[in-house]
């Protein structure tokens, strides 16, 4: 199994731009890491985004702007930018908040849409 989430082997579970937009814009997502760290993100329909916990494009970032670049979801904060793809997690569940995975620059964030 490749460990590069951009690899073609992950194409069957990779979300397209329209799916990413429907999942994030106008919604809240929440997840937790294996060690219990919680994080979440609220993205308004206009792309205004507020992150909490261990989700963000840099330490201490809270407010940012979400944008789509192709199939990638990007967050632009005042001094940092992070773009990554979103995968369906075939073994994920809403109860475990890991139905999807956002990956960027070696970081992975399993999550589910909660609102």
Structure description:
The protein is mainly beta. It has a single domain, classed as Lipocalin. The chain is built from one helix and eight strands. An eight-stranded antiparallel beta barrel has the order 1-2-3-4-5-6-7-8. A hairpin with a 2-residue loop joins strand 7 and strand 8. The longest helix has 8 residues. The radius of gyration is 13 Å and the shape is globular.
Short description:
The chain is mainly beta and 115 residues long. Helix content is 7%, strand content 43%.
CATH topology: Lipocalin
C-alpha end-to-end distance = 32 Å
Indicate the overall shape: globular
Task: Provide the gyration radius in Å.
Answer: 13 Å
- For the biggest β-sheet, the strand order reads 1-2-3-4-5-6-7-8
Helix content: under 10%
Oligomer type: single chain
Uncertain residue ranges: none
Please specify the SSE layout and strand pairing.
Blueprint: H1 17-24, E1 27-32, E2 38-43, E3 48-53, E4 63-69, E5 72-76, E6 81-88, E7 100-104, E8 107-113
Antiparallel strand pairs: 1-2, 1-8, 2-3, 3-4, 4-5, 5-6, 6-7, 7-8
């Amino acid at each position: 199994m490749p460990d590069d989430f951009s690899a073609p082997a992950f194409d069957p579970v990779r979300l397209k731009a329209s799916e990413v937009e429907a999942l994030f814009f106008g919604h809240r997502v929440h997840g937790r890491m294996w060690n219990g760290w919680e994080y979440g993100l609220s993205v308004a329909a206009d792309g205004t985004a507020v992150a909490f916990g261990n989700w963000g494009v840099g330490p201490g970032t809270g407010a940012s702007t979400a944008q789509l670049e192709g199939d990638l979801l990007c967050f632009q904060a005042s001094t940092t930018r992070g773009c990554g793809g979103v995968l369906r997690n075939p073994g994920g569940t809403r109860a475990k908040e890991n139905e999807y995975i956002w990956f960027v620059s070696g970081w992975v964030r399993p999550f589910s849409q909660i609102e």
